[in-house]
Design brief:
Number of strands: 12
Helix content: 25-40%
Order of helices and strands: HHHEEEEEEHEHEHEHHHEHEHEH
Number of helices: 12
Radius of gyration: 21 Å
Oligomer: single chain
Amino acid sequence: MDALPCLLEYSPEALTELVTGLGHKAYRATQLTEWIWKHRAADFESMNNLPPDLRQYLAEHFSLRPLTVVEVNQSAVGATRKFLSRLADGHLVESVIIPAAQGNGGAQSERLTLCVSSQVGCAFGCKFCASGLLGFTRNLTVSEILGQITAAEELAGERIDNLVFMGMGEPLANIDNLLAALTLIMHPKVLNIGARHITISTSGNVPGLRRLAEFNRPIRLAVSLHGASDDVRSRVMPVNKKWPLSQLIPALQSWRRTAKHIITLEYILIQDVNAALPEAEKLAALAASLHAKVNLIPYNKVEGLPWQRPTEEHCRAFCRVLVRHRIPVTMRYEKGHDINAACGQLRLRREGGSAGA
Protein backbone atom coordinates (compact mmCIF):
# COMPACT_ATOMS: atom_id res chain seq x y z
CA MET A 1 0.00 0.00 0.00
CA ASP A 2 1.14 3.54 -0.68
CA ALA A 3 2.11 5.57 2.37
CA LEU A 4 -0.34 8.20 3.54
CA PRO A 5 0.58 11.79 2.62
CA CYS A 6 2.46 13.49 5.45
CA LEU A 7 1.22 16.75 6.95
CA LEU A 8 4.81 17.96 7.36
CA GLU A 9 4.63 18.89 3.68
CA TYR A 10 1.71 21.27 4.28
CA SER A 11 2.40 24.94 4.90
CA PRO A 12 0.17 26.72 7.44
CA GLU A 13 -1.64 28.26 4.48
CA ALA A 14 -2.21 24.84 2.90
CA LEU A 15 -3.46 23.48 6.23
CA THR A 16 -5.99 26.32 6.32
CA GLU A 17 -7.27 25.32 2.88
CA LEU A 18 -7.47 21.69 3.98
CA VAL A 19 -9.30 22.34 7.22
CA THR A 20 -11.75 24.92 5.86
CA GLY A 21 -12.40 22.63 2.89
CA LEU A 22 -13.57 20.03 5.41
CA GLY A 23 -16.09 22.52 6.82
CA HIS A 24 -14.16 23.66 9.90
CA LYS A 25 -13.26 27.17 10.99
CA ALA A 26 -9.89 28.57 9.94
CA TYR A 27 -8.68 28.82 13.54
CA ARG A 28 -8.66 25.00 13.64
CA ALA A 29 -5.83 25.12 11.10
CA THR A 30 -3.89 27.40 13.46
CA GLN A 31 -4.38 24.86 16.23
CA LEU A 32 -3.30 22.04 13.91
CA THR A 33 -0.19 23.97 12.86
CA GLU A 34 0.75 24.47 16.51
CA TRP A 35 0.28 20.77 17.27
CA ILE A 36 2.55 19.80 14.37
CA TRP A 37 5.32 22.38 14.73
CA LYS A 38 5.17 23.77 18.28
CA HIS A 39 4.12 20.70 20.25
CA ARG A 40 5.52 18.15 17.76
CA ALA A 41 2.54 15.82 18.26
CA ALA A 42 3.28 12.23 17.27
CA ASP A 43 -0.37 11.32 16.69
CA PHE A 44 -3.70 12.99 16.02
CA GLU A 45 -5.42 11.62 19.12
CA SER A 46 -3.27 13.85 21.35
CA MET A 47 -4.58 16.98 19.59
CA ASN A 48 -7.27 17.32 22.22
CA ASN A 49 -8.55 20.78 21.28
CA LEU A 50 -9.50 19.65 17.76
CA PRO A 51 -13.00 18.23 17.12
CA PRO A 52 -13.11 14.40 17.23
CA ASP A 53 -14.40 14.13 13.66
CA LEU A 54 -11.49 16.24 12.35
CA ARG A 55 -8.97 14.16 14.29
CA GLN A 56 -10.47 10.96 12.94
CA TYR A 57 -10.41 12.22 9.36
CA LEU A 58 -6.80 13.34 9.64
CA ALA A 59 -5.74 10.02 11.20
CA GLU A 60 -7.36 8.09 8.35
CA HIS A 61 -5.90 10.19 5.55
CA PHE A 62 -2.55 11.60 6.74
CA SER A 63 0.60 10.74 8.67
CA LEU A 64 2.83 12.84 10.93
CA ARG A 65 6.06 10.82 10.86
CA PRO A 66 7.67 10.16 7.45
CA LEU A 67 10.60 8.22 8.91
CA THR A 68 11.62 6.11 11.90
CA VAL A 69 15.06 6.30 13.52
CA VAL A 70 16.53 2.79 13.58
CA GLU A 71 20.14 3.36 14.68
CA VAL A 72 22.10 6.08 16.48
CA ASN A 73 25.88 6.27 16.80
CA GLN A 74 27.67 8.81 18.98
CA SER A 75 31.30 9.75 18.62
CA ALA A 76 33.58 8.92 21.53
CA VAL A 77 35.09 12.39 21.16
CA GLY A 78 32.59 15.25 21.34
CA ALA A 79 28.87 14.82 20.86
CA THR A 80 28.57 14.25 17.12
CA ARG A 81 25.76 11.79 16.46
CA LYS A 82 24.88 10.04 13.23
CA PHE A 83 21.44 8.51 12.95
CA LEU A 84 19.98 6.17 10.38
CA SER A 85 16.28 6.45 9.54
CA ARG A 86 13.97 4.05 7.77
CA LEU A 87 11.51 5.58 5.31
CA ALA A 88 7.99 4.31 4.71
CA ASP A 89 9.16 2.23 1.71
CA GLY A 90 11.94 0.62 3.73
CA HIS A 91 14.86 2.60 2.34
CA LEU A 92 17.45 4.08 4.69
CA VAL A 93 18.75 7.62 4.95
CA GLU A 94 21.46 9.19 7.13
CA SER A 95 21.69 12.44 9.07
CA VAL A 96 24.37 13.82 11.40
CA ILE A 97 23.97 16.09 14.44
CA ILE A 98 27.07 18.24 14.90
CA PRO A 99 27.51 20.49 17.94
CA ALA A 100 29.88 23.43 17.50
CA ALA A 101 30.94 26.00 20.06
CA GLN A 102 30.61 29.45 18.59
CA GLY A 103 32.33 32.57 19.94
CA ASN A 104 30.10 35.48 20.86
CA GLY A 105 31.88 38.54 22.15
CA GLY A 106 34.28 36.48 24.23
CA ALA A 107 31.57 34.10 25.43
CA GLN A 108 30.79 30.67 24.02
CA SER A 109 27.37 29.71 22.74
CA GLU A 110 26.33 26.36 21.36
CA ARG A 111 25.18 26.05 17.77
CA LEU A 112 23.57 22.76 16.83
CA THR A 113 24.03 21.82 13.19
CA LEU A 114 22.27 19.07 11.28
CA CYS A 115 23.76 17.55 8.16
CA VAL A 116 20.71 16.72 6.02
CA SER A 117 20.34 14.18 3.22
CA SER A 118 18.38 15.00 0.08
CA GLN A 119 18.34 11.65 -1.76
CA VAL A 120 18.48 7.93 -1.11
CA GLY A 121 21.90 7.20 -2.55
CA CYS A 122 23.39 9.39 -5.24
CA ALA A 123 23.69 9.24 -9.02
CA PHE A 124 26.73 11.52 -9.28
CA GLY A 125 29.21 8.83 -8.32
CA CYS A 126 32.04 10.86 -6.76
CA LYS A 127 34.85 8.33 -6.51
CA PHE A 128 35.76 9.06 -2.88
CA CYS A 129 32.21 9.01 -1.48
CA ALA A 130 30.23 6.16 0.10
CA SER A 131 26.81 7.62 -0.81
CA GLY A 132 26.96 6.49 -4.42
CA LEU A 133 28.37 3.00 -3.88
CA LEU A 134 24.88 1.49 -3.76
CA GLY A 135 23.70 3.68 -6.61
CA PHE A 136 20.80 6.13 -6.77
CA THR A 137 17.37 5.02 -5.55
CA ARG A 138 15.16 8.11 -5.44
CA ASN A 139 14.74 11.69 -4.32
CA LEU A 140 13.57 12.40 -0.81
CA THR A 141 10.18 14.02 -0.47
CA VAL A 142 9.65 17.36 1.25
CA SER A 143 8.37 15.63 4.39
CA GLU A 144 11.35 13.24 4.46
CA ILE A 145 13.71 16.20 4.36
CA LEU A 146 11.82 17.97 7.15
CA GLY A 147 11.43 14.72 9.07
CA GLN A 148 15.19 14.48 9.51
CA ILE A 149 15.14 17.83 11.28
CA THR A 150 12.28 16.98 13.62
CA ALA A 151 13.86 13.58 14.39
CA ALA A 152 17.19 15.26 15.16
CA GLU A 153 15.54 17.70 17.55
CA GLU A 154 13.83 14.82 19.34
CA LEU A 155 17.16 12.98 19.65
CA ALA A 156 19.07 16.07 20.78
CA GLY A 157 16.35 17.40 23.04
CA GLU A 158 16.96 20.89 21.70
CA ARG A 159 16.44 23.07 18.67
CA ILE A 160 18.45 22.61 15.49
CA ASP A 161 19.50 26.11 14.44
CA ASN A 162 21.91 25.46 11.59
CA LEU A 163 21.43 23.23 8.52
CA VAL A 164 23.94 21.94 6.00
CA PHE A 165 22.65 19.99 3.03
CA MET A 166 25.80 17.90 2.79
CA GLY A 167 24.43 14.44 3.52
CA MET A 168 23.50 11.71 1.07
CA GLY A 169 22.71 12.85 -2.46
CA GLU A 170 23.09 15.94 -4.62
CA PRO A 171 20.61 18.54 -3.28
CA LEU A 172 20.36 20.44 -6.58
CA ALA A 173 19.37 17.24 -8.41
CA ASN A 174 16.26 17.26 -6.19
CA ILE A 175 15.70 20.96 -6.69
CA ASP A 176 11.88 21.05 -6.67
CA ASN A 177 11.57 19.25 -3.33
CA LEU A 178 14.59 21.12 -1.96
CA LEU A 179 13.07 24.54 -2.66
CA ALA A 180 9.69 23.48 -1.26
CA ALA A 181 11.41 22.19 1.89
CA LEU A 182 13.47 25.37 2.25
CA THR A 183 10.31 27.46 2.06
CA LEU A 184 8.84 25.54 5.01
CA ILE A 185 12.12 25.47 6.92
CA MET A 186 12.26 29.28 6.81
CA HIS A 187 8.52 29.78 7.45
CA PRO A 188 8.08 31.61 10.80
CA LYS A 189 5.26 29.25 11.85
CA VAL A 190 7.10 26.09 10.84
CA LEU A 191 10.83 25.68 11.66
CA ASN A 192 11.76 29.37 11.43
CA ILE A 193 15.42 28.77 10.54
CA GLY A 194 16.89 31.80 8.78
CA ALA A 195 18.39 31.53 5.31
CA ARG A 196 21.80 32.62 6.61
CA HIS A 197 21.84 29.51 8.80
CA ILE A 198 21.33 27.18 5.83
CA THR A 199 24.12 25.93 3.57
CA ILE A 200 23.51 24.04 0.35
CA SER A 201 26.36 21.90 -0.94
CA THR A 202 26.58 20.96 -4.60
CA SER A 203 29.00 18.89 -6.64
CA GLY A 204 28.53 21.30 -9.52
CA ASN A 205 24.99 20.96 -10.87
CA VAL A 206 24.91 24.04 -13.08
CA PRO A 207 21.15 24.12 -13.91
CA GLY A 208 20.38 23.60 -10.22
CA LEU A 209 22.65 26.52 -9.32
CA ARG A 210 20.61 28.76 -11.59
CA ARG A 211 17.35 27.61 -9.98
CA LEU A 212 18.75 28.19 -6.51
CA ALA A 213 19.88 31.67 -7.49
CA GLU A 214 16.37 32.45 -8.76
CA PHE A 215 15.01 31.39 -5.32
CA ASN A 216 16.62 34.66 -4.19
CA ARG A 217 17.17 33.95 -0.51
CA PRO A 218 20.48 34.62 1.28
CA ILE A 219 21.31 30.91 1.57
CA ARG A 220 24.97 29.99 1.81
CA LEU A 221 26.62 27.92 -0.90
CA ALA A 222 29.35 25.30 -0.63
CA VAL A 223 30.83 23.69 -3.75
CA SER A 224 32.43 20.26 -3.65
CA LEU A 225 35.36 21.15 -5.87
CA HIS A 226 38.09 18.59 -5.01
CA GLY A 227 40.10 19.52 -8.08
CA ALA A 228 41.20 22.89 -9.50
CA SER A 229 41.70 21.57 -13.04
CA ASP A 230 39.45 19.48 -15.25
CA ASP A 231 41.97 16.63 -15.40
CA VAL A 232 42.17 16.22 -11.65
CA ARG A 233 38.52 16.95 -10.93
CA SER A 234 37.24 14.52 -13.58
CA ARG A 235 39.32 11.78 -12.04
CA VAL A 236 37.29 11.83 -8.83
CA MET A 237 34.08 13.61 -9.89
CA PRO A 238 32.29 12.30 -13.00
CA VAL A 239 29.96 15.33 -12.85
CA ASN A 240 32.87 17.40 -14.16
CA LYS A 241 32.54 15.72 -17.54
CA LYS A 242 28.95 16.97 -17.83
CA TRP A 243 29.55 20.40 -16.32
CA PRO A 244 33.28 21.13 -16.54
CA LEU A 245 34.97 24.05 -14.83
CA SER A 246 34.43 26.16 -17.95
CA GLN A 247 30.69 26.00 -17.17
CA LEU A 248 30.81 25.75 -13.38
CA ILE A 249 33.00 28.80 -12.71
CA PRO A 250 30.80 31.26 -14.69
CA ALA A 251 27.74 29.85 -12.90
CA LEU A 252 29.44 30.47 -9.55
CA GLN A 253 30.43 33.99 -10.59
CA SER A 254 26.80 34.64 -11.48
CA TRP A 255 25.69 33.19 -8.14
CA ARG A 256 28.06 35.47 -6.25
CA ARG A 257 26.73 38.56 -8.06
CA THR A 258 23.17 37.52 -7.22
CA ALA A 259 23.54 36.14 -3.69
CA LYS A 260 26.22 38.53 -2.37
CA HIS A 261 27.62 35.71 -0.23
CA ILE A 262 31.14 34.33 -0.08
CA ILE A 263 31.22 30.88 -1.67
CA THR A 264 32.96 28.05 0.18
CA LEU A 265 35.03 25.68 -1.94
CA GLU A 266 35.14 22.25 -0.29
CA TYR A 267 38.36 20.40 -1.10
CA ILE A 268 38.97 16.89 0.21
CA LEU A 269 42.70 16.19 0.26
CA ILE A 270 43.41 12.75 -1.24
CA GLN A 271 46.90 11.38 -1.37
CA ASP A 272 48.36 10.97 -4.90
CA VAL A 273 45.20 12.49 -6.44
CA ASN A 274 44.73 16.19 -5.68
CA ALA A 275 47.04 16.98 -2.76
CA ALA A 276 50.25 17.85 -4.64
CA LEU A 277 51.45 21.37 -3.90
CA PRO A 278 51.12 22.55 -7.55
CA GLU A 279 47.40 21.78 -7.20
CA ALA A 280 47.32 24.17 -4.25
CA GLU A 281 48.61 26.92 -6.54
CA LYS A 282 45.82 26.22 -9.03
CA LEU A 283 43.24 26.16 -6.25
CA ALA A 284 44.49 29.50 -4.94
CA ALA A 285 44.10 31.09 -8.38
CA LEU A 286 40.59 29.70 -8.80
CA ALA A 287 39.51 30.79 -5.31
CA ALA A 288 40.90 34.28 -5.93
CA SER A 289 38.87 34.58 -9.14
CA LEU A 290 35.69 33.79 -7.18
CA HIS A 291 36.66 35.73 -4.01
CA ALA A 292 35.89 32.40 -2.31
CA LYS A 293 37.10 30.79 0.87
CA VAL A 294 38.45 27.24 0.96
CA ASN A 295 37.61 24.45 3.36
CA LEU A 296 40.30 21.77 3.31
CA ILE A 297 39.23 18.33 4.52
CA PRO A 298 41.76 15.52 4.90
CA TYR A 299 40.17 12.42 3.38
CA ASN A 300 37.99 10.30 5.68
CA LYS A 301 38.71 6.65 4.84
CA VAL A 302 35.79 4.70 3.36
CA GLU A 303 35.86 0.91 3.47
CA GLY A 304 35.91 -0.49 -0.06
CA LEU A 305 37.56 2.55 -1.64
CA PRO A 306 41.29 2.78 -2.43
CA TRP A 307 41.95 6.41 -1.51
CA GLN A 308 44.27 7.44 1.31
CA ARG A 309 44.58 10.49 3.56
CA PRO A 310 47.79 12.54 3.17
CA THR A 311 50.00 13.01 6.20
CA GLU A 312 49.09 15.87 8.51
CA GLU A 313 52.37 17.58 7.64
CA HIS A 314 51.53 17.47 3.92
CA CYS A 315 47.99 18.79 4.56
CA ARG A 316 49.46 21.75 6.44
CA ALA A 317 51.94 22.42 3.65
CA PHE A 318 49.04 22.49 1.17
CA CYS A 319 47.21 24.91 3.45
CA ARG A 320 50.24 27.19 3.71
CA VAL A 321 50.25 27.68 -0.07
CA LEU A 322 46.71 29.09 0.12
CA VAL A 323 47.59 31.28 3.09
CA ARG A 324 50.56 32.67 1.18
CA HIS A 325 48.14 33.74 -1.58
CA ARG A 326 45.86 35.32 1.06
CA ILE A 327 43.00 32.92 0.45
CA PRO A 328 40.71 32.52 3.49
CA VAL A 329 41.17 28.87 4.41
CA THR A 330 40.25 26.45 7.17
CA MET A 331 41.42 22.89 7.76
CA ARG A 332 38.51 20.77 8.90
CA TYR A 333 38.98 17.30 10.25
CA GLU A 334 35.81 15.22 9.93
CA LYS A 335 33.94 15.07 13.21
CA GLY A 336 32.68 11.62 14.08
CA HIS A 337 35.44 9.76 12.24
CA ASP A 338 34.95 6.86 14.66
CA ILE A 339 31.23 6.53 13.84
CA ASN A 340 31.54 6.51 10.04
CA ALA A 341 30.21 10.07 9.89
CA ALA A 342 31.13 10.71 6.27
CA CYS A 343 27.93 10.67 4.23
CA GLY A 344 26.68 7.24 3.19
CA GLN A 345 28.96 5.10 5.35
CA LEU A 346 26.41 3.95 7.92
CA ARG A 347 23.83 3.10 5.27
CA LEU A 348 26.50 1.30 3.24
CA ARG A 349 27.48 -0.82 6.23
CA ARG A 350 23.86 -1.70 6.95
CA GLU A 351 22.64 -2.33 3.40
CA GLY A 352 25.62 -3.08 1.24
CA GLY A 353 28.30 -4.76 3.31
CA SER A 354 31.46 -4.53 1.26
CA ALA A 355 29.91 -2.94 -1.82
CA GLY A 356 32.50 -1.32 -4.01
CA ALA A 357 35.39 -3.36 -2.60
